[in-house]
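FAQ: What does the model actually see?

It sees only this:
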Amino acid sequence: MLGPVPAFFSHHRDALLARPVALFLSGTSIGGVEPGGDETGRAIAETARSGVPLVAIALFGGVFSPRNVPLVRRFIKGGEVKDTRDRDAIAAWAEALPGSFGL
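And it is asked to produce this:
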């Protein structure tokens, strides 16, 4: 799912370097949900950003729905919906973003 992120940063690197950038990642194993998940998320963000400085970074739990993956992967990941989002944490981060941008 995160495959396009590095390509986006690479393709738009010059434009991103000209302005403040915030990045958040969400997934069912990050955001304090599973041991090691946040370290993996930060490593993904570090690789993806292609040297673009970030004014803010956040890792949030996400949602997995078997309806959104091919049938074979449903058996690997399991067939139940998994929702680890913390909507209050996401809202608090979003509310603090203008300050991160100096607004």
